[in-house]
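Pipeline run #58 for the internal structure catalog. This entry was flagged by the ingest filter as a single-chain record with no existing model, so it goes straight to prediction. Upstream metadata was stripped on purpose; only the residue string is passed forward. Reviewer on rotation: M.T. Logging verbosity set to normal.
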Amino acid sequence: MNIIALIAALLLIYYRPLADPDWLKKVYIPFSAFLEHTFNGGKNLHGIVAWIIGVLLPVFTIGFIYFYLIYSVNIALGILFGVLVLYLTLRFSQFGRRAEDIATALRNQNILEARTLLAEWEGEETSHYNVTQVASVCIETTFRRAHQGLFAPIFWFIFLGPAGALLYRLTHILKTQWRSQNRNENEFNMFSQKVFNWLDWLPAHFTAGGFAIVGDFEDAAYCWRTQAHTWPDQSLGIVLSSGAGALEVKLCETLPQRGILISRPELGVGDEADADYIQGAVGLIWRVLLMMVGMLLLLTFAHWLGH
């Protein structure tokens, strides 16, 4: 019955989005800061204990409630519980609308508005970006947020139910927050980083494969094979390279940051990014989402027919 919960949650998020598009992160960040402040003694063991309390305990609780107290008693209640968890977990509105607003600003030749929108979304300094750089970073952000906020949680929801989606999102939040708080790197956040890498490996390949299937397969496969390993984050490199290849767009290799040009690995093939390619990235994500839902529907029907 996961397919029913997933479709219902997606429709609910699309037509009745939360006032805060990432409610889970906003609520969870103070708790992650508390764990870091309480347990961070600079040791790997401290990070393991904090991760168990911050992620494994709430995920185990949700899984126990879902499988043993609700779903086994009443399937309808189990579906409603799954919808609720997905509604609070998925970031369905985090990629499309903001990207489209930036694309509209670029089409209207309003580079200042596009920079401002991107800075608010990405949290980076964008005041010196040109049109190509704004479009490139917007496409990257669109792919990254769609993967980490939508496709990967759905992937783990399919296999582990609501607890799987929550496991991925909480691990991602902890990894991100603890890394930003520990600029003088110590071993505390190493375990959360490793767990996230483990959890992200399969979904990243699934997302990249989806981009290749619904986009230009040959270019996606070429970029995945030749460019993914050059990206600092290997899983994210797989997603970004495949997405750029599927879209047939070449993303900029330099960005101005704090007065200097930062060189980045090659990403994608084809023409330079612009507003039309941003719109194309959003369309690519929609096609992957429809493909995922369609595949899950087929698997569900096959399971029913088998019984």
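catalog note: The chain has twelve helices and five strands.
catalog note: Residues 1 and 75 are 8 Å apart (CA to CA).
status: ready for reviewer M.T.
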